[in-house]
Amino acid sequence: MKIQVSGIIEGQPIPDRFAFGVFNAEDRMSFGPNRSPEIAWDEVPEGTRSFAIVMFDPDVPSVADNVNQEGKTVSRDLPRVDFFHWLLVDIPADMRRIPEGEDSDGVMPKGKAVDAGSIGRRGVNNYTQFLAGNPDMAGTYGGYDGPCPPWNDELLHHYHFEVYALDVESLGLDGEFDGVAVREAMKGHVLASARVTGTYTLNPDLR
């Protein structure tokens, strides 16, 4: 399989228009355009009955104590965990492209619905947990929400966009399912996959 994410070149910075948070010299960070990028794929294996899209950042601090705290830094040596930014499953087998802005076009305080539409069924991304303590932002974040790494993180973050060709029409996931559930449900059903990786940082020393 091959994957193309419009505007994203392997190993290069992700454009601000796809980001949840953008660099702001005065306030460190402000909300970004948060548009879901156009994603297209081809060279699909025979027997494909649906697709799944997974976007995640494997560089998220495992401990958030120093995240976005003035006078502190998030050490590059801190253990890291996966943070899921986009989960879309049960994408019809005849689809080969999702247009830019189709699954997100702006930051939506308190999140977006987890539902099934013409492009597939949305999962819950990890902003649901990250923003749970913020009364202005807390909610269920379905579908795409883009990069917004800590502005004081010493580590450059990497964002993996993946598409999977599956041998089932549906993964059988309902309700507010997360990235762990998607990975578990896909086991034994992946015919092929493809990935492209972009980078992003809000740390002025790394930009």
Automatic annotation (TrEMBL):
UniProt xrefs under CDD domains: PEBP_bact_arch (cd00865)
Domain of life: Bacteria
A UniProt-annotated Pfam family: PBP
InterPro entries, per the entry: PEBP, PEBP-like_sf, YbhB_YbcL/LppC-like
PANTHER family, A to Z: PEBP (PHOSPHATIDYLETHANOLAMINE-BINDING PROTEIN) FAMILY PROTEIN (PTHR30289:SF1), UNCHARACTERIZED PROTEIN YBCL-RELATED (PTHR30289)
The protein, known as: Phospholipid-binding protein, PBP family
Organism expressing this protein natively: Marinobacter zhejiangensis
